[in-house]
Design goal:
3 domains
């Protein structure tokens, strides 16, 4: 029987766990052309949720067409326009129509060897960027005249790093006039996204409904995993699922990986989970060492302190002295730099974005 769990890409169908309320909400917002800001730290299943919503919208009534645009790795306005044009190929099979609408722009098309999907690249002079940004966005709007459209800008925080002056203002000016499109602005850097959408000084102020993703409850994981394991006549106790979820700090990607490996095992026990955990950490050890070697001594000390204490009383004098900090302000600067590097996240409290990195750091003590 094929392993029903998946961790190397976004998941869907039976491999997708719960998020029933989130799916319902996002489908409703899409069908009613409302903009949403969806954010969580990495490995929380944000992208899988978005793709699950897109799949369900194809069958929902009223139907909504969808375009998923991944902005990760984009560096400037030109890249942003390329991403939109490439995204349009998801609903437009005739490249000629896109070329016609972007008349005057030098465009080249190719096939991405990694995804086997078409990509479009435009050659734009600096002074032409505002004109072609508006054209690309209005081209999106042209596909929403007869049927509602959902446009997902994933990793939207990348747009905040573009150097072009006034980019956010020009982007908002155009899309705020789109009446038949729902925009999902999705990302994993909470501090940047909140600044973009909650600061009255920024162009996207109150442009979208804030929708932070919460942890999936253990009971949902248990019901889902037990149902799948029963297909191969294996009973997995709730205590086992609870142990997995807590080991993984509720991070869906690692939970999927644990369950994937557990599916292959001849037995189900806590000892088996220990072996799976060791295997996962070992497989990533070189990556963790590479990351560790890029950190300053204070950043390393801060990570060890956080890993050992879970964030409890880290500014207490004895804790600071134990790891060699002269003051709380030095620790705070180190922690904030780790947030900037996306090693830690700050959602109410500081935590590791990678549960297995946390366990590896704990092993260094």
């Amino acid at each position: 029987m094929e392993n029903p769990f998946s961790y190397s890409d976004y998941v869907y169908g039976a491999a997708f766990c719960d998020r029933a309320n989130e799916q319902k909400d996002l489908i409703y917002y899409a069908q009613n052309s409302q903009n949403v800001l969806v954010y969580s730290h990495r490995r929380m299943g944000k992208t899988s949720l978005v793709h699950q919503v897109i799949r369900r919208l194809k069958k929902a009534k009223p139907k909504v067409r969808s375009i998923y645009i991944d902005l990760y790795g984009t560096l400037d306005e030109n890249d942003f326009i390329d991403a939109i044009l490439t995204g349009l190929t998801q609903i437009e099979s005739k490249l000629e129509r896109i070329l016609k609408q972007m008349a005057g722009l030098k465009i080249s098309g190719s096939i991405d060897p990694m995804t086997n999907l078409p990509t479009i690249s435009a050659s734009i002079k600096p002074m032409e960027k505002p004109e072609y940004l508006e054209k690309a966005l209005n081209l999106l709007a042209s596909y929403s005249t007869k049927q509602k459209l959902l446009v997902v800008f994933d990793e939207f925080q990348e747009a905040a790093k573009y150097s072009e002056e006034g980019f956010e203002k020009r982007l908002r000016k155009v899309i705020q006039g789109h009446r038949n499109i729902s925009y999902i602005f999705s990302g994993s850097q909470k501090h940047i996204l909140i600044e973009m959408f909650d600061s009255a000084k920024r162009a996207f102020y109150k442009m979208a409904r804030s929708y932070p993703l919460q942890k999936i409850e253990i009971r949902h994981y248990a019901d889902w995993a037990q149902k799948l394991f029963k297909k191969k006549n294996v009973n997995v106790a709730k205590e086992i699922i609870t142990d997995i979820v807590e080991r993984c700090d509720y991070q869906p990607v690692y939970i999927q990986q644990f369950l994937f490996d557990l599916w292959r095992s001849a037995t189900v026990s806590l000892d088996v989970l220990d072996e799976i955990e060791k295997s996962i950490i070992t497989s990533q050890k070189n990556q963790f060492i590479f990351l560790w070697n890029l950190l300053t001594q204070n950043q390393k000390k801060a990570l060890r302190l956080l890993a050992e204490t879970g964030g409890e009383s880290i500014y207490a004098a004895e804790q600071l002295q134990r790891v060699g900090f002269n003051s709380g302000s030095v620790l705070q600067r180190a922690l904030m730099s780790l947030v900037e590097k996306e090693i830690l996240s700050q959602n109410g409290m500081l935590q590791f974005q990678d549960a297995m990195l946390k366990k590896w750091v704990q092993s260094l003590s």
